[in-house]
Design goal:
The protein is built from 9 helices and 19 strands. By secondary structure, the protein is an alpha+beta fold. Bound molecules: S-adenosylmethionine.
Length: about 350
């Protein structure tokens, strides 16, 4: 059964289509966070294990630990407290989320050791910080403003020994066949996306295309090329770096290149969480191209990324320039924008197909 949600997006039961052709809005950058989102992140084993190990390795009895972007559960400020840190400070910009975190800390009787602060309150804190935890990395690494948030804090703290968790990320790109992975299904959101689509519409006050992620067990079936890194964030001590660049991707199979797939590899202490190879709460982002292009092994796809501030402030807009070089000559190229917020509905082939009025299943 297919139902619609206004805007008239196609919503389908994942089981009926064996998990194929499913997309989910990328939500963190808008920012849309609810209790389910925070719980989902805490059920993400690779992520939780990596932060737990990173904190165990770095928290000492005299440590001050800051969790910048603590959400409703302030998990890393609470873990630091459990590990015996002298002081934990948890900072959250969303007021109602901050209140939920405050209630939790009070209920758990941690109020004398763990402070929940707004960014404005925190900025007045000028004490020494040993460990900075800032899980503000997006589905495209810098898309939630991590470069600004972490970079500015590393500079402000000025501690050469500062441990930063995560210490950075790499955003990877691959040539992708969305239609190949969907195997004949039209794109659809799973019902679990409905609350987020509703919130997105409420925030925007108008109907716009969301940034889309691919989900489900068949994601890898659409991969046409090897991966390459197009964005790097790197933070430790006084070091703070964010850059975008280009990658040459060799086709590994034949298919119809209709999109680019962006995934993120997040370095957390000694661990790496990869949204391409692991099942994690970071989902790979899909960027549709205007027209499909046939590729064969030997084809080289060059992709160059640029990131800039737009309407989303530190939540970045991305622009991807692509060139396809088939082995027997000829060339196709173009530029595709991945804005923080699109300027309408049906701005690309994938969202046009997601609108039920345009194509009936
Ligand atoms: C991905 S969630 C992480 C929540 C929790 N730290 C965890 O790891 O489970 C990111 C949180 O950071 C908050 N956030 C993002 N940027 C922030 C900033 N510059 N200052 C304070 N909070 C921020 C968001 O509102 C959101 O609640």
């Amino acid at each position: 059964m297919t139902v619609t949600v206004g805007p008239p997006w196609r919503v389908a039961d994942p089981e009926e289509r064996l998990g194929r052709g499913l997309v989910f809005p990328s939500v963190g950058e808008y920012p849309i966070y609810d209790a389910t989102a925070y719980e989902t992140m805490m059920a993400d084993r690779p992520r939780v294990d990596a932060f737990t190990a990173g904190l165990r390795a770095s928290v000492r009895a005299d440590s001050t630990v800051v969790e910048l972007g603590c959400g409703a559960l302030a998990p890393w400020a609470r873990l630091a407290d459990d590990l015996g840190a002298a002081r934990s400070i948890a900072v959250e910009r969303l007021p109602e989320v901050r209140e939920a975190a405050r209630r939790l800390i009070a209920e758990e009787g941690r109020g004398d050791r763990v402070s929940i602060l707004s960014p404005e309150e925190y900025i007045r804190h000028d004490g020494h910080v040993d460990v900075l935890v800032a899980e503000v990395v997006g589905t495209i690494g810098g898309s939630e403003g991590a470069a600004d948030t972490i970079g500015a804090e590393v500079a402000r703290l000025g501690n050469p020994g500062l441990v930063v968790l995560p210490g950075g990320w790499e955003t990877e790109v691959r040539g992708y066949s969305w239609a190949g992975a969907a195997a004949g299904h039209l794109p659809a959101f799973p019902p679990t996306a409905i609350p987020y689509l509703d919130q997105l519409r409420d925030i925007d006050g108008a109907d716009v295309d969301p940034r889309l992620c691919v989900v489900g067990p068949h994601i890898h079936e659409g991969v046409l090329t090897a991966g390459g890194v197009i964005e790097v964030g790197d933070y430790r001590g006084l070091h703070s770096e964010h850059r975008t660049g280009a990658a040459d991707l060799r086709a590994i199979t034949s298919g119809s290149l209709d999109s680019l797939l962006l995934s993120v590899r997040v370095t957390i202490g000694g661990a790496v969480v990869d949204s391409f190879t692991q099942e994690t709460s970071w989902f790979p982002v899909i960027v549709p191209l205007p027209e499909p292009i046939d590729v064969t092994p030997g084809t080289v796809l060059q992709v160059r990324a640029e990131a800039g501030r737009g309407a989303g402030g530190s939540c970045l807009d991305y622009r991807l320039s692509w060139d396809v070089h088939p082995p027997d000559g000829g060339r196709a190229s173009g530029v595709v924008d991945v804005p923080w917020r699109a300027s309408g509905l049906g701005t690309n082939p994938l969202t046009r197909m997601l609108l039920v009025e345009s194509v009936q299943e």
